[in-house]
Each structure stands twice: as C-alpha cells, then as structure tokens.
C-alpha cells in the first residue's frame, strides 16, 4: 500500500521548520505542508486553553488539506494539547515530546538530564514524565527559558544578545564547578536554531539533544505500519505557510532550505478570513 497525500506539520512559528528539515531528509519522497502560527507566537506564555484552541485551529487547517498524517512540531502544543487533538480527528498525529524524551534517555550516561522549554511545556510536566518512562532512574531538571523563542522569531540566531540570553537560560542547569547534567534536551523546536550558541555555552562534555531527527524516525515507522508511505516514484511537493510576517518567515526558512524556498504564502485561519491557502516552497 502507498499514499501520495502530503504530511502536515504545524508549530507556533518557525521552530518547527527544524522538524520539517529532518522529515524531508529522512523521508525524501514525502510531500509536506507546513503551517507556522507566527502571528500568535510564542505559545509558551499562553494559558492551556489558548494553546489548545490555537492548536485546534492549526490542526483543522491541515485536515482540510487532506493530509495523511500530522506532526505537532511544537513542544508546547504537544505537551498541552496532544490528547485533545487526537480526539478531534482520525488522522494519525505524532508529537515531538516522546521521541525527544527517548533520545535523551538513550544518550545520558549518568541519568542527569536538563530540559529547557517554554513555560507551558515545563508546567505540563510532559518531558520529565516521558523521560522517566524510558529511564526510571533519571534525574530530570526542567527549566523554563522565556527569552529564547522571541529571539528566534525575530531572526536573531547569533550575536552578543543571543549569547547573553542563552548563558542566562542555561545557568540554573550548569554547576559552577562542573556540569550538573550530562545531557541537555532542547524542549522547544525553536532552540535548534540557536544550536551553535547553545553548544558553545554547555561545552563538549554535555550531549545536546533535539527532538527533530527522533521525530522524523518515529514518523517513518507510523507511515510504514499504517501503509501510507509515499510510492517510490513520487516527486514530492513542499508547501510553506505562515499566519505572520511572510518576509521574516521566509528568511528563516531560507537559512534551512536555501533557494528551494519560494512563494511562502500568508495563511488566514478560519477564525479570521476564509479562503487563503498555503503556498509552495
């Protein structure tokens, strides 16, 4: 069996593009539709009710495009809204929390794992619970890092302001006389875009894990088990859309995908205007 329909992915903004990049590398025949809700980013400081409502609107947009599977490429949405989203549709839905937790549990040597994430993700307790499911002896410290997502959404990935924000964000997880952790899990899909700065800040002794590649591998399993993988002769089509500033979104997308990014379209969710579509990239 095979299925030519696209895979849908959504995030509160540009962070989920890191997951999309891994999906496109891991599954090169699959078509994709990506939706970034940049207009309302970040989701992290919002209430659970807001996160659920916004995630539902993004989900509905993708379901209307007849996607065959959906990746919730937003840790906040996956932490807060995933069970509700799965009840909303019969389309297979994969979050980023479980794959990321599995990767961190496998990588740690001492069991001391730090997680940086949004306020809502930390509040949910999703990552510590998922990591302990994989490794019961793990000591997990989850720390909210409020300053990082706005920097990424603003297109700031390097420079003194970013270095200072990352250092402040990581300070509670790093002991003055040496690492208090041996593994750092980036519990927000925006954070890999700051990967170089984060890597320098933690040093070579700490493994830095993001959920993107693990999620792409988990998605491959879902497609295979459900018999909905793309046929061998499929030429993929990739579409990108944002509810926010198209030019700003395109700048970040080009950093990941180069000149393949064209015609990013403005998306108006049904709450605002009916009729706008998602463009190609």
Main CATH class of the largest domain = Alpha Beta
Major sheet characteristics: 7 strands, mixed
| Second CATH tier, the architecture of the largest domain | 3-Layer(aba) Sandwich
What is the name of the CATH topology of the largest domain? Rossmann fold
Structural class: alpha/beta
Give a verbal description of the structure:
The protein has 281 residues and is an alpha/beta fold. The chain has 2 domains: 7-95 and 213-280, Rossmann fold; 98-212, 3-Layer(aba) Sandwich (Rossmann fold), CATH 3.40.50.1860. Helices cover 42% and strands 18% of the residues. Strands 1, 2, 3, 4, 11, 12 and 13 form a 7-stranded mixed sheet that branches. The longest helix has 17 residues, at 48-64.
Q: What is the element layout, followed by pairings?
A:
Layout: E1 7-11, H1 17-26, E2 32-36, H2 48-64, E3 69-72, H3 75-88, E4 93-95, H4 97-107, E5 112-117, H5 119-124, H6 126-134, E6 139-144, H7 148-153, H8 160-170, E7 174-175, E8 178-179, E9 183-186, H9 195-202, E10 207-210, H10 212-226, E11 238-242, H11 246-257, E12 265-266, E13 279-280
Parallel strand pairs: 1-2, 1-3, 2-11, 3-4, 5-6, 5-9, 9-10, 11-12
Antiparallel strand pairs: 7-8, 11-13
Helix pairs in contact: 1-10, 2-3, 4-6, 4-10, 8-9
How is this structure best summarized?
With 281 residues, the protein is of the alpha/beta class. The protein has helices at residues 17-26, 48-64, 75-88, 97-107, 119-124, 126-134, 148-153, 160-170, 195-202, 212-226, 246-257, and strands spanning 7-11, 32-36, 69-72, 93-95, 112-117, 139-144, 174-175, 178-179, 183-186, 207-210, 238-242, 265-266, 279-280. The strands form three sheets. Strands 1, 2, 3, 4, 11, 12 and 13 form a seven-stranded mixed β-sheet that branches. A four-stranded parallel β-sheet has the order 6-5-9-10, with helices on both faces.
